[in-house]
Specification:
By secondary structure, the chain is α+β, with helices and mostly antiparallel strands. Helix content is about 35%, strand content about 55%. It comes from Sungkyunkwania multivorans.
C-alpha cells in the first residue's frame, strides 16, 4: 500500500496545484478630429447692350443774317473722342443748321461672384478597454500540505525524539548539579 501511495502522491501533487487568475486591464483612448471645408462659388455675368444715342441741337434763327453767320462760323466744326468701345462725335450740319451729337456706349458686362465657405468639424473619441486574463499556477493547495503532515506525523515525531532524547539527558544532568 505504501508503494501505491508513493506512486500516486506525485500525480496528486501535480494534478491539484492551485491556480490564480490574474486580470490585466489597459485602457486606450483615441481622439480623431476630422475637418472638412466646403467652398461653393457662383458667378453671375450680365451683359448690357450697347447704347447708341443721337442728339440734335438746333441753332436756326428767324433772322437769315444770323443763320448765315452761324453757318460761316461752324462750317468746318467737327469734334470727337474715343475710349475703348465708347465714342462721342459732334458735327455741325449746315443744311439743318444744328449740331449733331452721336454718343455710343459700348457693350458692358457685370460679373458678380458669390463665395460661400462652410466648415464642418467632427470630433470623435474612441475608448477601448483591453482585458487580458491569465491563469497562473502558483502553489500546492493547503489541504495537500495538511494531509501530508498528518500522514507523515508519526515518522516526523520519531525523528524529533531521536534528536531531542540526547538533549533531555544532557539537560537533566545539568539541572542536578
Amino acid at each position: 500500500m505504501r508503494t501505491t501511495l508513493y506512486i500516486l502522491l506525485p500525480f496528486l501533487l501535480i494534478g491539484c496545484l492551485g491556480t490564480k487568475k490574474t486580470t490585466e486591464r489597459s485602457n486606450v483612448t483615441r481622439q480623431t478630429e476630422k475637418s472638412e471645408m466646403l467652398r461653393d462659388s457662383s458667378r453671375t455675368k450680365s451683359i448690357n447692350r450697347a447704347i447708341d444715342n443721337e442728339y440734335m441741337i438746333p441753332l436756326k434763327s428767324t433772322d437769315s443774317l444770323v443763320n448765315e453767320l452761324v453757318r460761316e462760323a461752324f462750317s468746318n466744326f467737327s469734334a470727337g473722342a474715343r475710349s475703348g468701345s465708347n465714342s462721342t462725335r459732334i458735327v455741325f450740319d449746315e443744311d439743318a443748321l444744328a449740331f449733331k451729337i452721336a454718343s455710343i456706349v459700348g457693350e458692358t458686362s457685370d460679373i458678380e461672384t458669390t463665395t460661400t465657405t462652410e466648415t464642418k468639424m467632427e470630433r470623435s473619441f474612441e475608448q477601448i478597454l483591453i482585458e487580458n486574463t491569465k491563469k497562473v499556477i502558483r502553489m500546492i493547495p493547503m489541504w495537500v500540505w495538511v494531509a501530508l503532515l498528518l500522514w507523515f506525523a508519526p515518522q516526523i515525531m520519531s525523528r524529533i525524539r531521536l534528536l531531542v532524547n540526547p538533549l533531555i539527558g544532557i539537560l537533566k544532568k545539568s539541572n542536578k548539579r
